[in-house]
Amino acid sequence: MTTLCVVLTSCPPDRADAIAAHLIDGHFAACVSVVPGAVSTYRWQGQLQRETEALLLVKVPQPSLERCLAALTAVHPYAVPELVVLAAQDVNASYLAWAMAMTAVEPIAALSGAKPKRRRGRTTKAPQ
User: φ, ψ for residue 120 (rounded to 5)?
Assistant: First the structure.
């Protein structure tokens, strides 16, 4: 059974949009959410580092995962990019179908214009 994977990676904030666009334009990922303002603390070459980065949440169906990881590694500016892959336990079937269509080498035309519905902002009750 095909599932969706979420790849976590971080990068310099000024590179996040270009990496996201590359992954989407090349059909390597279905969606990339850029979360700005992540602060990472780590040790690099013996020195403690604390950097403000952008966190990328890359959504990709499992069959396209290796292509996505290769594309991400090729454009990532870090010598050792963080690539953490999480497999989703449960995924909305229509979202998974859309993600599969978006990462196909030739996107399925019927689904390419159908962006999954998302709730944005607060839901409010109608005035009474």
Answer: -115, 140
